[in-house]
What does this fold into?
Amino acid sequence: MVVVWTLLFACAEPVESVETPKESQDCATWYADLDSDGYGDSTKEVPSCGPLLGHSEQPGDCNDQDATIHPTAVDPPRDGVDQNCDGADDCSGATHVESVGEIDCASSAIYVITRSATSLPEGDCVCAVEGDLSLQSSEGAGLLISVSGELKVNPSSKVELPMIERAGELSASLEQFGLAAPRLGSVGDLTLELWDTTPELETLDSFEDGFVRIWGEAVPGLPAKLTAERMVLVGLSQDADLREWTVGYLELGMLGHGTIDQPDSRRVYIPDAPIMLLSSMGWVRTEIEAPAELDTVNIFLLYGGSVHGLTYAKALQLSGGGVELPDLESVEELTLRGDRDGDPDYFELPALTWVEQLVVEDWSPQVRWPNLLEVSEVRLYQSVELPTIERVDVLIDEAGSALTSLLEVGSVECMDTELPVLKEADYASGRCLAPSLETLGDGEGLEGCPECLPRLQYVTGDLTVTGGDVALPELVRTDGTLTLDGVGSFWAPELSSVSGVLVTGTGNTILENSFPGNVRVEDWAPTEAVTWAEVQGSLTMLGTNKVQTAPALTVEHVTANLYMNAPMWRSLEGMSVEEIDGNARWCLKWIANETVLDWLTDTDIGGVAEEECAE
It folds into this structure.
């Protein structure tokens, strides 16, 4: 038995199958051919292993109600009909010329100009230009169907192009004059400067992955569907629904003519574009309806507005005078910026619960996000108050900000950063005002001002403090090395355990208490004489080839060994160790051994003084 699939149309006769022997049948796809011109409608297909009445094996008919229209039909120019189904009215049979001077519109011929032209001849006899074309009026453009290059319109009166269907690029500076191209459906790039007019481009909806730029004090009637690689629309002065647009990059500027007391309002539905810049000009408040998820979006609403529907963004930048995002829950990269007007910007993000990276740039915004408790990375380049945030993995503050709720941080780089409730950090550097910090992993380049770290008790790694007077009144233990770099005075009365101490830099480091561990002095050059009471361990004095003078240091008591290795020291004048419980060893190539021994004579050396100078 042979099974034949059939498709019934309301206006067609019943389909009959033609039986053929099974071994001779070829199965294929058939297309409904209602006008019997030998070509079927590509959208109406039927699988069959034999011929079907009212069908054809050849697809491609773009009008199955007219037998004169099919892919092999002759397409006469100038009639406004696409007879051969190639998507445009043709210039078949046209005479090709290189310049306007070769054209005779008095004849019955039609012409294609194969090079760029700055005008068209009088009379309507040119159907295409294979190059660029500049027009100031409608003269000679009545039959123009296509321009392969740039069509530049700079009119002195309204330009009407009734037949044109496509152009490689269209640019028009219309001012008060108009442009009518009712059949234009496709261009590459589009540039429109509009001031007191709106162009008539009813069918233009495809830009062949081109770049669209429209700006001025008016915009054309926007198509419901549009395709473009890049779209810049500056001067949107009415509500718009752009949800059916397909664009790679969308830059949208809303225009308002209201006042500060009574701004205009604008409602815009935006598409799901990978990259968007949404801004406003003039006194206008913008209400944006967005997809649930967006990739990269920059929102700058000068006089405020809101974005509804958006719950997730990969990269979001906010600036402007009062922006609300009531539905936003999570952002991978959030950037907050000001608008230069001197007034603080305000952002309302009531549903936000997660941010991977937060960046605050330029001026000082104010923000409310009651449910945002944790951020992976925070970078602050402008002073800002960040409420509610309790946990941050990485915090970099270059502006003196305040994180009043921060309890835990992995790594923090401070610049007068206020951290009033922070109790624990894995790493810290700079000037951190953290009066509650008790435990620190590593500290590098920390400023130990009295108000900085008054409750720091434990450092589980290395601690480096720099500059000025350092006060760590509750510090008990440092498991790693304690480095004093250019420190004035160091006060840590409770310090009972330290792996080692390194003193370096140019500060006059005064140890106001005994050190419970070994002390290493390296390239240290105090500007005044310094006295240390006691080193509860060994004291090592090191100087590189660049240092020729021993530091002006008096140490009253070293409980272990003294070792000096400074090949370029020329003298021990100004340095004195009054009591050494262990051995004294040295490598001082410019100072004779006898001199060193004389210097050590006044010390109480527990062991034997000996030279140790490795080559």
Confidence is low (pLDDT under 50) at residues 1-24. Residues 558 and 580 are 5 Å apart (CA to CA).
